[in-house]
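In practice, a research group might receive sequence data for several interacting partners and want a quick structural hypothesis before committing to experiments. The following worked case mirrors that situation: the sequences arrive first, and a predicted assembly follows.
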Amino acid sequence: MECCNQKVSMISRIRNLTNRKDAHKVEQNAQKKIALIGNPNVGKSVIFNSLTGAYVTVSNYPGTTVEVSRGRYTYGNSKLEVIDTPGMYSMIPITEEERVTRNLLINERPDLVLHIIDAKNINRMLPLTLQLIEAGFQVVLVLNIMDEAKALGIEINCRELQKILGIPVLEASAALNKGLNEIRKTIEEQIKDAA
Amino acid sequence: MEQKSKNISVNIPLTMLKAGQEAKIVTVKTEDNQKLRKLAAFGIFPGTEIQVIQCYPSIVIQAGFTQIALDSEIASEIIVNLNN
Amino acid sequence: MQHNTLNYDKDIENLIFRLVSHLNSDYAFSKRSVATMLLQEDEEIWELVKQNDGSNYNEIRAMINEFKKNTSESVLYQISRTQQEESKKILQKVMTVDKNSGSKLAKIVNKLTINPITGIPLLLLVLYYGFYQFVGVFGAGTMVDFIETNIFDEMINPYINQFVNGLIPWKVVSDLFVNDYGIITLGIKYAIAIVLPVVGCFFLMFSIIEDSGYLPRISMLMDRVFKKIGLNGRAVIPMTLGFGCDTMATMVSRTLETKRERVISTFLLALAIPCSAQLGVILALLSGKPMAMAVWLVFMVLIFMLIGYLTSKVIPGEKAGFYMELPPLRMPKLSNVLKKTYVRMYWYFKEVLPLFILASVLIWVGNITGLFEVLVRYTVPVVNMIGLPDKTAEIFLFGFFRRDFGAAGLFDMQSSGVLNGRQLVVAAATLTLFVPCVAQFTMMIKERGWKTALAMCAFIFPFAFAAGYLLNKVLVLWGINLG
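A structural hypothesis for the assembly, expressed as tokens:
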């Protein structure tokens, strides 16, 4: 049976070697986590939905994505847990949502942090990217709502920014379905390197 | 007349600006660290160039590509430098 | 490899270096980052360090205090300035802006929405067409009429009554499912015929307004008014949502910044904000009588402002300043709006339908045990006192189970012409103020704790009747019968 099924994942192979209880433990440990971080209003939920296919309300303003959503991102033989955090403006929390978000970072220790920002407001959102890098997270920066930024005459040299920060920087307009494939590809590449 | 045309640099609270005026933020006078941080997250920070869009019922300022509404208590704590 | 670009002033860097050497545990953040958060007086991080590096805690504290004594500028400030300046420096290298871009029309429309001279009439128009005409007249009027009369009363109920009564010969048992108070003929009928269209219309409208970026503009315009009742413009969002569902709004009130605001808004939601199901029924109830509607509206606004004002005087705590981003206005995407509406309605019905059924069951139990009759008998004098006929006692008891349930009962009474205009207004007003529904009460306990939730209800219960009594007296005294 087993040899016929090409798509037996690493995890289920391990499960077959160990007893059930231990296998559960292994699965818990093996599952890598991605946290989506950013202010409310930057299209986090859209990206979360596209990664996980989960049903989550798409929110536009502070206040409605209070609860933390979790989903599963599957590709090839791997599964990742994706955590959509409530809003975050700075590493130092003020509101309950920010506190929840930071506690998630402390307790869950995500292997990869996707910092999603509104490209037209990059000047006030980039400091958080710098702080996330300082804090030692493996960060991917997503410049979302790029369409609106371009309409305002904003051009951002991603390659240069990538070089300065030493992290992948992606452009996206998630609500228009643009840039989502690149986000997926980058996550898959990055998570391989994640410790 | 001659004196007036010189560059006069004055530090005043944001509440004293009229709609349309531009200024640079010098400091935010508050003991409340939380407020400081939150305002900084909105880009209200020394050095930021702002323009007042309107003054009533709330003060609305433009900082970069962001419009921010503030009440007058908070605006009175934001000290700006008005050039000319 | 990632590059840390943040380099603080030399003194701070030295201090961070020394702090890092005192942090021995494994934190989720780099030690450098933990040190900067300690410097920024982050209490949670201090607590974390106390737990993990307790032996060095006092030394760390002393180092920071010593440093702060010798610096004039706040450390917090210096750290965030470095973060901002570094970010600015980077952006100068990678970003260009063409100032001439951007739509002129968008700028003009934006100005119109925020300037009070044009913004307030615009807001009133949005409220009138969006909520009154669409939710009130179309949803609560046309749609409810159609579904209730044409579908339930004519097509479904007689058939179901006949079918179930034939199937179950014992009237006691069949009453559970059908007839006056049955699960199907009362519970489900109310849920589908009255609540569904109203709540659906409301959430649809709310999602459109939310996605257009208009809500923060309402906050901005209303900030001064909300300050009078101890809240600020930020509370516009939960308060407006309350007109859809008070339970959901109570949950969302946790996004307000201070505890004081959260308590005040929870209280006002419970007391004076009718939810859409209730509002829909009340609008339908009073729609034929514009004067009655006006009296109800003025009365509710007065109560809201008065109680809000008094509460803000009584409840201690710090006032929260108002600052909010005004995002650009944009055309809402239909697919997002529909998805949001669907998700909200799904949530709502998951919360509501079981309670509707539960209410029908409880009423059934109450009826066969005679308990309900006893309760009604005790409530009769109270409703008589506020000038209402005996039969309204039942409705107030229904109101316990669901606010809108009570209002819907009132609707049936009005249709049969039992109440005059004055009585309708008094009943509608009292019922609006009356206790929150079961779901909202549960949420109040969850969000604000037992004590606060019970204290609020202990106030609301007698207050609703006292206010109703007063309103009735005033109307009688002035000889206003309102048709």
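Before designing any experiment, note the following. The radius of gyration of chain C is 28 Å. Chain C has a mean pLDDT of 87.
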